[in-house]
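Quick one:
INPUT:
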């Protein structure tokens, strides 16, 4: 039997209908009990995006999942599917990608993630989007517009201390500092174009600049991965253990899910 679990918050609340299917609300599923009760040939389809996958992997240990699990893409960002070069609207087998997942420690809690752990302007965008949704749940979120306003006016860059596999670095005027399992962040930004999610290293990217206008002018280059040529603005490091610390609290995001008032995070692969 094939079970369909949908995320009612995915894709700005726009649902997808699959003929002949009555899906279950993924947010109401007790994942450990659900998977323990499946027969060996049962299959599961998640309908949603990065946040839907993140929700599952943080409620059941992926190592205990013996059944085939698929993702039917219906997210607003779909960074995971972009990274593995798969389209939305079809069932994609997840199991090969649920092994060797990184763990992040932030705010006294530990999380697994499938795409990235980050804070900076992307966390700010998630925080602002949450505020808009709280006031108007049916409003479509314009992440690009939020980012532009943040870059021009509202988000203040941070001083950052970063440690990667024991090597310590310090940066000023940091706008973005993600640790990447995949290549994409923020719904299509190719922030780590050389990252291999099947490899044994993570990529840490620092996007920094004192000038707001220069930051905004070069920001679109991230979508094509061309920002890596901006040597005075971008620093790229790889490793298995990462610690990122900012000089003030700001919002973080894990696979697009917001964590507020973060000053530091740790990641280990």
């Amino acid at each position: 039997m094939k079970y369909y679990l949908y995320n009612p918050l995915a894709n700005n609340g726009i649902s997808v209908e699959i003929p002949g299917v009555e899906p279950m609300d993924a947010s109401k599923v007790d994942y450990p009990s659900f998977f323990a009760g499946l027969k060996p040939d049962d299959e599961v389809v998640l309908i949603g995006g990065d946040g839907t996958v993140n929700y599952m992997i943080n409620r059941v240990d992926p190592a205990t999942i013996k059944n085939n699990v698929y993702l039917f893409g219906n997210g607003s960002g779909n960074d995971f599917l972009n990274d593995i070069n798969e389209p939305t609207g079809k069932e994609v087998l997840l199991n090969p990608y649920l092994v060797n997942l990184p763990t992040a420690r932030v705010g006294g809690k530990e999380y697994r993630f499938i795409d990235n752990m980050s804070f900076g302007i992307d966390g700010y965008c998630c925080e602002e989007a949450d505020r808009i949704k709280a006031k108007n749940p049916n409003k479509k979120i314009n992440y690009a517009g939020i980012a532009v306003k943040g870059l021009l006016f509202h988000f203040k860059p941070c001083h950052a201390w970063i440690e990667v596999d024991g090597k310590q670095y310090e940066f000023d005027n940091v706008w973005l500092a993600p640790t990447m399992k995949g290549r994409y962040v923020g719904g299509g930004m190719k922030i780590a174009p050389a990252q291999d999610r099947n490899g044994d290293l993570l990529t840490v990217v620092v996007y920094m600049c004192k000038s707001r206008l220069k930051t905004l002018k070069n920001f679109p280059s991230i979508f094509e991965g061309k920002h890596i040529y901006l040597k005075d603005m971008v620093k790229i490091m790889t490793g298995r253990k990462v610690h990122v610390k900012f000089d003030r609290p700001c919002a973080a995001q894990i696979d697009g899910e917001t964590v507020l008032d973060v000053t530091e995070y740790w990641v280990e692969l």
